[in-house]
Structures are given as C-alpha cells and as structure tokens.
Design goal:
Protein-Tyrosine Phosphatase, Chain A, 3 domains, 15 helices, Udp-n-acetylmuramoylalanyl-d-glutamate--2,6- Diaminopimelate Ligase, Chain: A, domain 1, UDP-N-acetylmuramoyl-L-alanine:D-glutamate ligase, six-stranded mixed beta sheet, single chain, eleven-stranded mixed beta sheet
C-alpha cells in the first residue's frame, strides 16, 4: 500500500507522516491504526462528529469540510476541503492500488432482477471453478466469506476496499449490482468494468430522479464507463435498451435476439421452469417470467466470457434459488406460501402473474410500501395487487420516519380508483401475515411481498428484527400444531 506522504504528493500537499496507509473509510467504527477517516456529512449523521473517535482509534489522516480542534497527542494530519467526497474517491483508488483493474467486474443495473442475476452468474462461474465475488443488496461475498451489505452499491471508499479484499483472496470475477443512485452519485468512480448488463426500467426512485428520462440517463452512465473491449448486454424487450449502448449483445423473451427464450413452461407445483435459450435446454427451480429474463441476462454474459453450454445447463439445474426472491415457505401445509422482494408495481405484477400461472385457487397478497420513498408508486402497487389477487392485506413495510397511516392511505387510493373492495388493513406486519395464513385453504397461495431477504423492519429510526420467511414459517407451524389445517405436503 501507499504511504501518506506519497498520497499527499498526488495533490501537491506536504505531510511529515511517512507511515503506510492501511485503509480509508467513512465509518469511524471501522478505523484501525493507519486509516484515513473521511468525515462526510450524510442524511442522518455527520462524520465530523466522529473525528475524535477516529483519531483515538489510530487514524493518521482526517479529511473534512471544516477545520477542527484536537487535544490528542497522536500523530495525524488533516485535509480540509469543500470536496470531501471527490477527494476521498480519488484517494481510495490510490490507497487500494486501483483493484478493479485486477478483477473482471460485471456490473448489473436495472429496476428489477439485479440481485437474482448476480447469484445466477455466481452459480455458473463457480461451476467452472472460478473464484467469485458478489456486491449487492442482500450481502457481499468474497469467495465463501459473507458480510452484510449496507447499500446496494457501497460508497467509493468502502467499494474499493472490498475490491482490494477480493484481489487478496484470489477472486477472478465479481458480479455487482449497480444502482441508479450509485451511478448518479459517483459511487463507482474509477471502477473498471469488464461487462455491463441492463435488465429493465420501470417506475421507481422517481422521488430521486424526478422522471423516467433522468432515470434512464443514470443507468446509461454504467455503459458510458465501459472500456473499448468490454461486453455490453441489454434487454431488448425494454424500450430503454436502445439508449444504453450502440452495439450491445441483446437478450429477449419476446422476439428474435442474440439470446432468445422459447418454449417456456412452468410446473403447476411452482417448483420448476423449463425453456430453451438458443441451443440450450434450461431446467431450473427459478420460476416466473421475471426469472426467465434474469437467466437470459446471465446466460448472455456467461457465453460472452466463453463458458460452455453443459456447464451453464448443469449450474442452472442445481441452483436452489435466491434468498427472498420467489422463495417458497414449506412447513408441511396444504397451501403455497411465497416470500418475494417485489416492492415496485412492475415487480409485484410480474410476481403475481407468475403466481396465477401456478393455477392455485385463491391468491392472498400481503404487502405495504416503504416510508420516506416515492409516494407516486403506492397507488400503482395497489392496482397491480388488485388486478391479480383475490384478497389483499395492506400492512407496514419499512415505515421509517413516515406516518404508517399516511402510507396505507396513499396505497388505498389505487384500490378506490379501480373499485377493488376485497382488502383489509392490518398495520402490524406479523399480525397481517398470521391473518393471511389463517385465511388460506387447500391449494390457495399466500404471497408476502416487499421485504424478501430483509431481516429487519425500520420504524421511527429503530431497526427491529423481522424476517418474513421466519414469521410465515412460525405462523404455519402454529396452525398445524393446533390441528386447524391438515399436513398434506
């Protein structure tokens, strides 16, 4: 790694400190001796308030937007600049020796499907024998080492540190979710991508992007970053795909393309999907049209990197699924219970259409909307659930700092507009899940949507432990134990 003196030379600033820089971070909790601490002002906290803590932990440099006083006798230096974020991003590349150039990083962007596609790619590339890494919504993986993720796409200081760890661990391929926020805010500054994938674009995050044009332009930034020899893969079925890249590899489940899905069939049990991609026979436990799309994207990438047909087919056949993505909860009940992360109107509609194709009896849907997020999508989610559900229970998702009653009222507007009456409101999510499961009869289907893999619920700043899958399993076992429902499957 670089010394602090060498690092300062890159911006023509002198320091007497010759010690090696061991890392750079925005999080004072991660500081160890030799670190640079970046005192960045965030939405909920200001890094400036943690400067003293960082110095006590051994930080040898503080980057801040305001000067500060310190009584510490520790040997550290400081840089005061109005451009904290930009300088920290540049320093991160130098501290970690531009690690993405030593990896093949595949960036995946789009409203829906990013997470699942990264796990499909991981399964395929690991089948060959490559060491892989994942950066995304559920967790970050460095080969078999797993850490919880704080953001879909980490801040530059943390991202480059993860890449550095991957290089040290011998990782060869990295599958990375790249959010529109990350692209707009420069979180992937300096990252070299070997490939970029565009999945789709539907109404989401318009509280941030304002309109769909801006949203699409944010996604396009990933493709603008690609070096000449990189691979660009886009979903031909999206009208926004033409804006991403001039001559991409295209995939489609609707029309002739470089990679086209045909003869799509789903088992009634909901356990398997069967379809063809070019000359490949795909048999997989990932069900639904949205997963056909995800698999198409992954296959296009895999083939472009030279992975052969038998490996792809076997990897997809063996893949069990992705945590919180159309995940079945099986506890011996005689009805289906599915947990899914769907939290946009489009993703909820796709999941519910897949549920309909399973030809169960009634569909009972439990969902809510996150607080402090785009309010315009709330009635749209209601309309999607009304179109495909027989009964809906509205409940809390992550209200955050917003009044839960206002969120539920916003959602209700959509039901009123389409005249849907078969719903009720139960604010407490655990109780809502219990009621839905108790309502279910033989061969009904309960869909619990919105939170998927999340193991918490955020309400008024408090993170409460909560996992839809665990709660659903417990409620099913409760009714089976009470002999209210027979154990048929």
């Amino acid at each position: 790694m670089i010394t602090l003196k060498e690092l300062f030379k890159t911006i023509d600033v002198f320091t007497h400190i010759k010690r090696q820089v061991t890392g750079i971070t925005l999080d004072s909790r991660k500081v160890i001796p030799g670190y640079i601490f970046v005192a960045l002002k965030g939405v909920h906290s200001d890094g400036y308030d943690y400067i003293v803590e960082a110095i006590l932990k051994g930080a040898i440099c503080i980057i801040a937007d305001r000067d500060f006083k310190s009584t510490s006798k520790a040997d550290f230096d400081r840089i005061i600049t109005p451009n904290v974020y930009e300088l920290a991003s540049k320093f991160a590349l130098l501290v970690y020796d531009n690690p993405s150039t030593k990896l093949k990083v595949i960036g995946i962007t789009g409203t829906n499907g990013k997470t699942t596609t990264t796990y499909i790619l991981e399964a395929i590339f690991r089948k060959v024998g490559f060491k892989t890494g994942i950066i995304g919504t559920i967790q970050n993986k460095i080969d078999d080492k797993i850490t919880l993720s704080e953001n879909t796409t980490p801040f530059p200081t943390e991202l480059q540190g993860i890449f550095y760890e991957m290089v040290q661990a011998g990782v060869q391929y990295v599958f990375m979710e790249v959010s529109s926020h990350a692209l707009e805010l420069g979180r992937v500054y300096g990252t070299e991508f070997a490939a970029a994938v565009f999945m789709n674009l539907t109404k989401e995050h318009l509280d941030f992007h304002i309109n769909m044009k801006n949203y699409a332009l944010a996604k396009k930034k990933l493709f603008d970053m690609l070096p000449d020899k990189a691979i660009a893969v886009v979903n031909k079925d999206s009208k926004y795909s033409r804006e991403m890249y001039r001559t991409p590899i295209q995939f489609s489940r609707k029309t002739k393309s470089d990679f086209t899905a045909k003869n799509i069939k789903f088992d009634r049990s909901g356990c398997m999907s069967h379809f063809d991609i070019n000359n490949m026979k795909i048999n997989t436990k990932l069900v639904g049209m949205h997963n056909v799309e995800n698999i198409l994207a992954a296959v296009a990438v895999a083939v472009s990197f030279g992975i052969v047909k038998p490996v792809i087919e076997k990897a997809l056949q063996e893949l069990e699924g992705v945590n919180g993505r159309f995940e079945f909860v099986r506890a011996g009940q005689d009805f289906a219970c599915i947990v899914d992360y769907a939290h946009t109107s489009d993703s909820l509609a796709q999941v519910l259409r897949t549920c309909r194709k399973l030809k169960m009896n009634r569909i009972i849907t439990v969902f809510g909307c996150g607080g402090d997020r785009d309010r315009k999508k709330r009635p749209l989610m209601a309309k999607a659930s009304a179109k495909y559900s027989d009964y809906v229970i509205l409940t809390n998702d992550n209200p955050r700092d917003e009044n839960p009653k206002r969120i539920l009222t916003d959602i209700e507007v959509g039901f009123n507009e389409v005249g849907f009456l078969d719903y009720e409101i139960i604010e407490d999510r655990e109780e809502a899940i219990r009621v839905a499961i108790n309502m279910a009869n033989t061969y009904d289907l309960v869909l619990i949507a919105g939170k998927g893999h999340e193991n918490y619920q955020i309400c008024r700043g408090e993170h409460k432990l909560f996992l839809d899958k665990k709660v659903a399993h417990e409620k099913i076992r409760d009714i089976l134990t009470a002999n209210i429902k027979p154990m048929l499957i």
